[in-house]
Amino acid sequence: MDHLQFEAMLLDPPLAASKEQAALKAHLASCSVCRDLALALDPLENHLRKASLVMPVDGFTNRFQSRLATKRRKAQERILVLAVLGIAAGLVGLAFLFGGELVSGIAPLVTAGLKSIGHVLRIGSMVGLLGEFLSVLIEGVVGNVSPAYLLAASLASSGLVSLWVFSLYRFNYQPIRRE
Prior knowledge:
- The protein is an all-alpha fold.
- It is 85% helix and 0% strand.
- It is built from five helices and no strands.
- It has helices at residues 3-11, 18-30, 32-50, 60-144, 147-172.
């Protein structure tokens, strides 16, 4: 017999329609399990109806919401930690399986990368030395040359740079002639 349907009607009687009420009464007459459940529910419902309503202590809602948020945050943190550990375990497994092949392929890249870093550091130190040299040179020139000459030199160099940029522009956009 399907008791779930009738147990649901016993636990929530206002939702049962009149047709369902008749089916429930017929089932209770024939089924001792559901009848015992109905007889046990009556005193419980009477006791619950007579019980007084107890109001929660002040701040209950705030404490409950705070605990709920903390629980959710901790659950998310656990999931994140498990995901990171899973990824790390997978990477370790892949390194264990394919480590020999990867090391032989990566070793030249690592040495080339280290050499490149060395070159970049040397170039950086050379640029630093050049900057110091230029700062000493500029301080010496600025201290010994009159402002009018400095203005004329800056105008002349800006004019030359402008001509150079214009010539690059013209050179790049000339149509190619066929002979």
